[in-house]
From TrEMBL:
GO terms for biological process: glycolytic process. Signal peptide: none annotated. The lineage of its organism: Eukaryota, Viridiplantae, Chlorophyta, core chlorophytes, Trebouxiophyceae. It holds the Pfam family Glycolytic. This is fructose-bisphosphate aldolase. The keyword ATP-binding does not apply. Coiled coil: none annotated. GO terms for molecular function: fructose-bisphosphate aldolase activity. Keywords: Glycolysis, Lyase. It catalyses: beta-D-fructose 1,6-bisphosphate = D-glyceraldehyde 3-phosphate + dihydroxyacetone phosphate. It comes from Apatococcus fuscideae. Pathway: Carbohydrate degradation; glycolysis; D-glyceraldehyde 3-phosphate and glycerone phosphate from D-glucose: step 4/4. Its EC number is 4.1.2.13. Belongs to the class I fructose-bisphosphate aldolase family.
């Protein structure tokens, strides 16, 4: 398929059947924390070599786009070929993390863990430059925390307004915006609180997008699935129950003009992220289909086993790349409800991918993606 030149063609290309997005746009701070956890140094060269694993792996059969952090948009592989060239050669469109991280809402929020996203002031010039550097799409992450009195109306409306403005600026610059209102997994909430928060957040986001006259056919939505919080103590819902609730909320809140819903993995294990995506697609087809593609834009769920292999032995590049392709293949199958139940993950099922530093609880870490 040709990625086309209009934003609506590009958006459709990114979410075409059997494909999803590799979210590899962790900020330098987040990436260095992940590397440090495995014993690797956080130098630019280590980050570059780690990214090369993915961008030069055989991922183009299942991956339609890769979101890059800005330092990587201009980086080269070890043969001096720009990463953007390696990606485009296998049909993977380069995208860019366009936001500048989170910061606490200065006043009026219900908790100091409530944040909004920085970067709007310089966004237009930045997007023009990213487009010149080869990016075809962008991502902006808002993070909303569930607790007894959050997300507050203020946090919801402020983040929705920023997402709406960001989307419009991207589209004006020829980039497809990925609109990411992430409901954080952190917390004790159950499925009901997760659904209620998601509905409030999604309704506000689409209202803001309409206020900005954003083209809903030229954007992609990147939500969290409806899952319980990481500290929920009740019974664990099945993939089927997650699929039912996720589809119910998406059908209620996401307009049919939007071509694709690209879920984030958000702290689920690699296996859960694949199993839940597969269940969502199986259920959608039992229900007669859905108006949008239901696929993935995963970070941790496409990378964690790869980093595990490579960090234990940096000479195992080929093995790490085979893992990158295998994780992409499993999720590509899940994105059309055809995952066979075999998962390539080398991580134990109890190994959590939760990262509480990702943006809400400590001031210095608010830079993190
Ligand atoms: P995870 O899949 O690791 O949640 O990352 C997706 C992402 O891009 C979050 O901003």
């Amino acid at each position: 398929m040709d990625p086309g030149s209009s934003i609506s063609q590009t958006a459709k290309y990114l979410c075409r059947a059997g494909y999803g997005i590799l979210a590899s746009d962790e900020s330098t701070a987040t990436m260095n924390k992940r590397l440090a956890k495995t014993g690797l140094d956080g130098s630019l060269e280590t980050r570059r070599a780690y990214r090369e694993l993915f961008y030069c792996a055989d991922i183009g059969k299942y991956i339609s786009g890769a979101i890059l952090f800005k330092e990587m948009l201009v980086q080269k592989d070890s043969t001096s070929q720009p990463f953007t060239t390696c990606l485009v050669a296998q049909g993977v469109l380069p995208g860019i993390k366009a936001d500048e991280g989170l910061e606490a809402i200065a006043s009026g929020a219900k908790s100091k863990e409530e944040t909004h996203t920085k970067g709007l002031d310089s966004l237009k010039e930045a997007c023009q430059e990213y487009r010149r550097q080869g990016a075809r799409f962008a991502k902006w992450r808002a993070a909303l925390k569930i607790s007894a009195d959050t997300p507050s109306e203020l946090a919801i409306s402020m983040n929705a307004a920023e997402l709406g403005k960001y989307a419009r600026i991207c589209q004006d610059c020829g980039l497809v915006p990925i609109v990411e209102p992430e409901i954080l997994i952190d917390g004790e909430h159950g499925m009901r609180e997760s659904s209620e928060a998601a509905e409030r957040v999604l309704v506000a986001c689409f209202q803001a997008l309409r206020e900005q006259a954003a083209d809903l056919g030229g954007m992609l939505l990147k939500p969290q699935m409806i899952i319980p919080g990481s500290e929920f103590t009740g019974p664990k819902p099945s993939s089927r129950a997650i699929a039912e609730e996720t589809l119910r909320v998406m059908r209620k809140c996401v307009p049919p003009e939007v071509p694709g819903i690209m879920f984030l993995s958000g702290g689920q294990t690699e296996v859960e992220a694949t199993a839940n995506l597969d269940a969502i697609n199986r259920l959608a087809s039992e229900q007669g289909g859905a108006p949008w593609a239901l696929t993935f834009s995963y970070g941790r769920a496409l990378q964690s086993s790869v980093l595990d292999i490579w960090s234990k032995d940096r000479s195992k590049v080929a093995e790490a790349q085979q893992m990158a392709a295998a994780l992409a293949a499993a999720n590509g199958a899940a994105s059309v409800g055809q995952w066979d139940g075999q998962h390539p993950s080398v991580l134990s099922s109890s190994q959590s991918l939760l990262e509480t530093f990702r943006g809400w609880n400590a001031q210095p870490a608010l830079q993190a993606q």
